[in-house]
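Two proteins, back to back. First:
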Amino acid sequence: MKRNNFFVLKLKKAILPSIFCLFLLFLLIFSKTNLSSAKSGLLLWANSVVPSLLPFFIATELLSYTFIVPLLGKILNNVMRPLFNVPGEGAFAFLMGLISGYPTGAKIVSNFRKAGICTQEEGERLLAFTNNSGPLFIVGTVGISLFGDTRTGLLLLLTHVLACFSVGFCFRFWKRKQKYKTNTSVKTISQLFKRQAGNLDVSFSNLGEILAKSIMSSIHTILLIGGFVVLFSVIISMLKQSHIITIFSLLLEPVFNTIGVNTTFLPAFLTGLLELTNGLNEIATVPVKAISQNVILCSFLLGFGGLSVFLQVFSITSKTDVSIKAYFIGKSLHAVFAALYTYLFLTYTTFFNLDIVQTTYSFSSSIKQFSFQMCDYFLLIIISCICFLCFYTIRRYFAK
């Protein structure tokens, strides 16, 4: 029995070295295609990711030197606990993770846990729904750059945010039997980020120094993203050349046929599960009759994030006791919710129905189209009112 356990232990230790040796071997075998894939990944990062994310990263870094951070925590302190069962300080992680994009949310949650602002269970709840794609990436990179349509980007952003709220509310029951501590003072957030910034408060006298620090920190983050994009571009190229993706595509064909999705998307979908940006780029260029299928699959991948983002988050949270399992479950739920909401909006609203192509024009048809759009807006208003009433009811319930 001990010999078997020893053999299993030795086998586990040999897995990663074997994978790295195989990766080096594939680099030599497919050197020609790997070079072109690395170039295309670098161009994709430089032309799409950097212009969309770098200015936002700099703006977010600058905000951490101001009073905005503790102010947001104070305003939203009475919202986070009844809705998501996390301390009010988690509002900063939620907002910044939603605005800035990957992996800002994971960074903030990790810092919260190190500073003792949240417990382990609260950190896992926060991590599950605060690390998301940013609006500039969704609207700018995916909507405008890849699909060439702002409306598509807005649809993906709307469903992404709704899915984020849904995951956060579901995770309020994550290890709910664990007792939570009393909320720390909202000033703790300001002190935390002030220590990380070298005890600097923004003023006209040190604006140049703070701006330089913000730019350097943002460049470090964007270079990390670029490194993962290039690395996974090469990995995807090797998997394609070795026909591994083709084999997995054949295995998943029955699943796509069951849910009614064109199997042409399978290679691009598997690529997106590995690396988000490359997968979205491939899915957006797949020629199919119904463009809604492209959008729904992109919504799923935006919610999941891909293995590349997963490893980025794991490299950050590995320094804390926050479990990565909660993040994986949360992103899986996020992907399902986002795809479901996108399907519902594409199916039941004419404004977001991207498969409608108008071939003739008449006054009666324009009136009909206008009435449909008014019904859509009225439906959205009703849904918003219902959500507000639900929130108010939940808040009053937990306040009692």
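And the second protein:
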Amino acid sequence: MSASEPNAPASPANWIANQPYLLLSITALCWAGNAIVGRLAAGHIAPVTLSFLRWSFAFLIILPFAWKHLVRDWAAIRSRLGIMIVLSLTGVGAFNTLQYWALEHTQALNTLLLQSAGPLFIASWSLVLLGIRLTVAQAAGIAVSLTGVLVILLHGDLTTLKNIEFNRGDLIIVVALVIFGLYSVLSLKRPAIHGLSFVAFTFGAGAACLIPVLIWELVSRPAMVIDRTNLLTLFYVAVFPSTVAYLCFNRGVQLIGANRAAPFFHLMPVFGTAMSIVFLGEHPQAFHFIGFALVLTGVFVASRKPQTPNSGPPPAVT
């Protein structure tokens, strides 16, 4: 997804590519669905297999559209090959594999609670690597939206917190979020290449990084059964949380920076709750509306452009 060229005629694609709030909302929607599908896939598709096939299929989907840009940008990619490999390993290979592994061991409630801490890890990496501090508005917005997430997940009853038991899966999710926070911040240091070149390379390289672990998993765990459910699962994770979401997320971070993009993580449990209402027939209650209002308020406050630039370097030209 790239910015429109000067004097280029307006088009829906160009308009969408320059709407960071819309792009990041689409990302959150796709990733909320990924958490649900990943949980359903647990026990049917092993985590490394699911992650490897997800990114391999996503690479094949994006390659025809990205090929001409890859050829043009190859010199720039090669000159920054180290950072590109790190981005592929962290944001594509490691994060998603750990997420699917965690979903085999932890409750959905725990996962959503911990994922809501994503902005804190991004803020920490932004401070360590870029020297960027949260503004008061960003910190307040994250706090408000995190409160909204807790209201939704705990059904308005904070006493539910005392009944949560953390396990190995929760620790894996925390490690995954630390890694994804690093990816989010380092993506601002990517070479100035087209968005399609970036995702094609990271998808392909990320899948390739998983091959040694995949071989170990195939030897130690049962192979995936090829049936309709598993194929639909692979189709979903390859198209929506991979191809669509990463194009939107990377472009959104380019436009407004990692810190201002981070609060959109809190939309994931909001969308997850909405999906439960629509697809599982759950009935909306007062705490849903209160939580939604808090989350949206927090995202709005935290993602507003600060008076002085502190959300990272200017967007790369794509």
